[in-house]
C-alpha cells in the first residue's frame, strides 16, 4: 500500500530557512543581477558596512530577503519560488543541497538529514497553490520589538526610490497602502510620517521624497481619501475597517423604512458608504469612497501591519486555504482591489504581511519568506529578558500585594533614559478594575509610601478615563511630562499589538480574560527594550493565566512558558586578551597621482563608429545583440545532437532610450563636465559628425558609455601618472589605552583557544604577540598549530581576531565589486619563514573560495603586499583541517598514497 503524504510534516516544513540559506550561500552571485541603486540601498543599511547603520540585524536581513525576492526572483509567487527551488531550475539551477547543524537562528524542524520527500513536497505545493492569489503574497515574521513598523517603512521607501528611477518596471510599487488592525496600531504607524528618512535612504536621494511623498492617514470614519487618480508616491495608512468590504444586510421594505426611520439604515455600512448612495440590491458587495480611490492608483503595494492580529482567527483560513466568494475578510478586500486595478490596466504589485510569528497552531505558514523568532530576539537582547511568576490559591488582595512588593524590589534604583519603570495591571472588566483592583492597589501603594497619583487608569470609558489620562497615557515614555511620572497603569483590553511603552517593566493579570490570546499579547507588552543594557520584564500571573500563556506560547511560538522565562543559553565567554609584544612590520605604500593635462581637440578625430564597415561594426556591437537560438529534432539520448538549428536576432526588442541631438549633447556634457555648446561643436568636428553618432547611439545605447564618452575623454586629455613609494611601520595590534589596563575584551571563538601560558616553551616564543588567541573556526585553529610546529617557520601571528582599525593597523583597502565602495580587509595570519620571507595567509571556507568579494580582497592584498616583497596566499578550510598546508611554504604536497623513501 502506498504511503500517504505526511501532511503534518509537510506543514511543519519551514521553507523560509532554505530560502535564506540559498541566499547566504550565493549572495555574491545574486547581487550581480541587482540594479546599482538596489546595491547602494543595501550597502547604506548594512550594519557590517556602516557601523552607524540604523537597521538592526533582523531588520536588515528581512530587507535583504525583500530585495532578493524583488530583484533576483522577479517578484514571483511563493509557490513558483518553492517549485523552482525543489526542482533546482530557473534561478535555483545547480543549487546545492542544504543541511543545517547547530544553526540557532533557523526555525522549524531542520537537521542535516532533512529531506523533503516528493509526496510531502506535493502537499506543501498544493497548500501554496490552493491559497494562491492573483498577486504575490509574502509574509515577514519578526517578533515584537524588532522593528516591523520601520522595516515596513524602509521597504516602502525602497519601492518608491526604485519606482522613481524605473517607472516602467512593474515590479516596483508606485503607491503603497498600509492596513492596520486597530486604532492602537494605526496611531503607532504615525511615526512613519515623522521618521527621518535619511536614516535608511542615502542622503543624496532624500530630496526625491521631500518633493513627491504624500501621506494619507485614514483614522477617522468621516475622512475621505484625497489622492489624485493616477498619481504616484501616495502612502495611505488605514484601519482595516475603514477600507474593508462589507456585505449589505437584506434591504428593508418600504413599510419598514416608513415606520422605522426616514433614512435608510445600512447598519455597519453607514459610515463606510459615504456618498456612494443606495446599494443596488442585497447581494452586491459595497465599496466605500476610499476603496474606489485606491482602485485608481497605479502599481499599488499592500502592506499589512501586525498581520497575525489583523486576520485574527481567519488567518489560518486565509493563509492555508482559499477564501470563498462570500468571504468578507481583509483578504477578500485585497483580492477585490487587485481585480479593480487589473480592470484599470494596473495591478497590485504584491501584498507584504508583517507579523510576529510564522506559525498558526501546529502549522508553518507556507508563504513566510523570512522569520526572526521570539527566542532569538530575547537572546540577542532586542527585548527585555522575561521573568514569569505564577501564583496559586491567591485572592486579588494577596496577588496585588505580592506583585507590587516584588516589582518595587526588582526595579529599585532603575531609571533608564530618565524614565520610571512601570507596572501594568490588566483587569477583565471595568467593574473589576474600579471595585476591586484600584482600591487594593491604592492600599498597597500607601503601605510603601507611594502616592495614589502614581496610578493611571485607561479603560476607554469617559466616566473613568479623562482626556488628561489619555494624554498622560500617550506620554508614558516622554521624559519630563506628567505621564512619564505615572508608575502603575490600570487597563482593560489594552494589551494588543501597537501599544508601545518601553518603560513598562512589568505586567500583572489575575483574572482570565475572555480572549485566550490576549494573555499572550498583554504579557509581551513589557518586553520592549530600553536603554543600552538588557533589563528584566517581570510578569505576574495567576496559575490559570500561566497555563493559558503556556498554551498560547506553544501555539504561536513553539516554546513553553518555562522556556520563555528561561534566560537562554549561557552568554558567550569573554576573554581578557593582553598585548604581550608590540609587533610592528614595515610595509611599503605606493601612492599614485594621476594628473590630467588638457589638450586641444583635433578636428577630424575618429571615434571608430562606422556601420558601413560591417566587419568592424559587428565586432564592436556583437556583445549588445540578443540572439535567440532554437534547436529542434533533438535525439532522445543526446541533447547536443540536433538536426535543425535556427537563430533569430531579437535586438530590436530591447528597451532603449531614443536620444535627440539635444539630449545626447546634454548626457555627454553631464559626464565630461563641459559646456553643452563645446560638446556639440566637438561632435560636429569628429570624422563621424553629430548625426552619425546620434544614429549609432540610438542603435545601441551602450555605445555612448563604452565608446563615445571614453574616446572623447582621450581626445581631450592626456594622463600623467606619478608614483611615490613610502615605507610605514604598522602595528599588528595597537595596545589599548584604558587607564592602567592593557587588555581587550573579546568573545571566545568557536574554533578553539590557545594561550601563551599553556603552550610548550619551544613553540610559544615563535608566536603570541597576544597572550591569548581565540579562533572563529576549526580550520584556523588547525593551521595555526601546524605552522607553529613547522621547522621552516620563524614566527607566526594570528591577526584575524581584530577587524577594527582602531585596534590594528594591519589591514588592506579594497574596492567592493558590488557597490564599488572602499572597504578594509583584515587577513588571518602573518607568517615569517626562517629565510626571512613574509607570507600573509587567509583561510576561507570552500564555498567562499571563488566569491567575488573574497577575490577582490585577495587581489588588493597581493598588490599591496608585493610592494614589500610579501607573498599573499589563500587556503581552503578543508585543506587546513586535513593538515594540507605545505604549499603555503613553497613545498610540494605529496598525494596521501605516496610515502617518502629516505
TrEMBL record:
The chain crosses the membrane at residues 138-161. It comes from the Bacteria. It holds the Pfam family ResIII. This is Type III restriction endonuclease. Residues 123-313 form the Helicase/UvrB N-terminal domain. Keywords: Endonuclease, Hydrolase, Membrane, Nuclease, Transmembrane, Transmembrane helix. The keyword Membrane applies. Residues 812-875 form the TnsA endonuclease N-terminal domain. One of its GO terms (molecular function) is endonuclease activity.
